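Look over this record as teaching material.
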Amino acid sequence: MSPKSHPWGAPPWSPDFRPAPGSVPDQVDFAIVGAGFTGLSAAARLCRLAPKKSVLVLEASSLGEGASGRTGGLALADTAAGPLPGLGDVLASYQEILHELAIVGDLELPGVFEVGRSNPAKDSPICWNDAGNLKVVRSVPGGAVDPGKVVAGLARAAEKAGASIVEHAEVQTVEPSSPPRLRVCHRVRGRIQRKEVRGGQVLLATNAFSLELSGLNDAAQPKLTLALATAPLTATQLKAIGLASRRPFYTVDLPYLWGRLLPSNGMVFGAGLVPMPTSIASLFERPARKGAQRFARPNLYRFDVRKGQAAESFRWLENRVHHLHPALKSVRITHRWAGPILFTEGMRPIFRLHPRSKNVMVLAGYNGHGVALSVYLGQWAAEALLGRRSLPPWG
């Protein structure tokens, strides 16, 4: 499926890397489910720390089609729940990881504006009309990155270090045996190949639509978040709207809005959360297999953001953007897209062993703070799989 025809739309970036074609092996030392920021970061780290071990990354679709390729690219410090005990400096570690893996991701960290409708700073460069006067409250550490370049860079680094990355390899079940067994449906040149993979240890680094596989049905809520991009703005327009400093922003009150500049000087704006249909089961194509953990991956291509409530939400977002400031009244919208996001209790990431197997680790649920955090925690997960680091008490 081409990006232009994808029912979730197309962001203004995409990975420029495709992994080498490969088959799904029968057995590996480490099996990673999900080729996003988390899984690829973990794979690269595992291969560097244990070069004699086999590492397999299984991706149900293509690189960049999940949450990592569809995020807005805001790199934020800490977690959505704030700094957690023992977390460390996420942004500094993120920079170090990108540098160590030679990833050029257009990372800029000028700081991020927190904007709100009350208690504004006296020198706020922003004054927008959005359910009141929206102004800068304060600036916090952070910035923006090109998600497509980071996904591609992580995949390139992982493959170079020795990991095998197999696209269009959907993990349908994980059996919590010893070792765990993964049943994989691999689509190769229009044909379906079904394989069983025995993995010494498994990392589930999947997106918001794999809750049954990861045992998170009662611990997290999946939604789609919407974003759009504009044509390039002039220097005069950027100064007028208060973003000449190129700092991203997000609101600290409702209605929520976030945004960042692209290298082209186009703007990305995001807001709105579209819930999945009430009956998720109606989207599934296959029944669960008895005695196995079901991969709750519905046929998401049936859920088209160009229709229904999602389409209404896009129209609402475009209207907000055009009315924020006179300089944005006639700005042209060039891209519209959506991406999955997983909300958890307390807004904390879930980083723990699977409740049914000590050989299966689960890392998910970044609550919108995953751009830097997922790469950082992916490396932590690799060290934990190798017994070099403990899991965090808050995970």
